[in-house]
Amino acid sequence: METVVIQPSIAVLISLVIAIKAYKRKSLDVTGAVAGFIVMTLHLAISYRFGAVLLVFFFTSSKLTKVGEDKKRSIDAEFKEGGQRNWMQVLSNSGIASVLALAVWRLAGWEDKCLDGKESAVITSLIGGIIGHYSCCNGDTWSSELGVLSDAQPRLITTFKVEGYFLFFTHTHPTSQVNALS
């Protein structure tokens, strides 16, 4: 019974502190801080492990966003100091994992589960999906934050050759993908 009250209360407190600090440090705008608070509370309330995976993604990506800010400012017309992610970026990077976390909670309740295919292949798959989701988000965010700092042409990971025309899609504006195609 205490998990039902204590863990969500701790989740709200931790999420509130982190969302406020992220807003003050300009990692998130107001909408991003609100969305981040909700997503982080959800993750931590369901499982501290899910919250830890989310926080590793958030802290490392926020740190890398600040690397090379001067160069990023000079090449990105929509550059925002500190990154200032909004609600769309927060949900883009956490929406699928949030749905998977809710599915784990629906199946397991407040019982903490870990990767154990013998006990439940479905729960193990869902947890693996959460970990995999944030791994992909890390790869995408880290590569876009660090890749833009390189003067070299990007290479295909399959052939290690520079081939063709590469489109770079940024996380700074919802229409950036459409603009890149025009």
TrEMBL record:
**GO cellular component labels:** membrane
Record has Cytoplasm as a keyword: no
Q: What is its main location?
A: membrane
**Location of this chain's protein in the cell:** Membrane
Keywords for this protein: Membrane, Transmembrane, Transmembrane helix
InterPro entries linked: DUF92_TMEM19 (IPR002794)
Transmembrane stretches, start-end: 6-23, 35-59
Q: Which residues form the signal peptide?
A: none
The record describes its membrane topology as: Multi-pass membrane protein
Keyword Transmembrane found: yes
Q: Which family does it belong to?
A: Belongs to the TMEM19 family.
Name of the protein this chain belongs to:
Protein PGR
Q: Give the species.
A: Salix udensis
